[in-house]
C-alpha cells in the first residue's frame, strides 16, 4: 500500500517534509472494517 508520511517534523517546504512510503496491506480483525477510498479529478 502506498502512503505519505514523515519521519520528523520539518517545514513544509523542506524536500524531506513528506515522504512516499510503502506499507503492508491492512488486515481487518475483531470489530475492524476495511474501507477502500478512491478519488477522481474535479
Describe the structure.
There is one protein chain. The model has no long low-confidence stretch (mean pLDDT 90). The chain has one domain. The chain contains no helices and 2 strands. It has a two-stranded antiparallel ribbon. The protein is 0% helix and 19% strand. It is an all-beta fold.
Instruction: Bin the strand percentage.
Output: 15-25%
Give helix and strand order, one letter per element, not per position.
EE
Helix content: under 10%
Structural class: mainly beta
Q: How many distinct folded domains? A: 1
Low-confidence stretches: none
What would the keywords be for this entry?
single chain; 42 residues; mainly beta; two-stranded antiparallel ribbon; 2 strands; 0% helix; extended
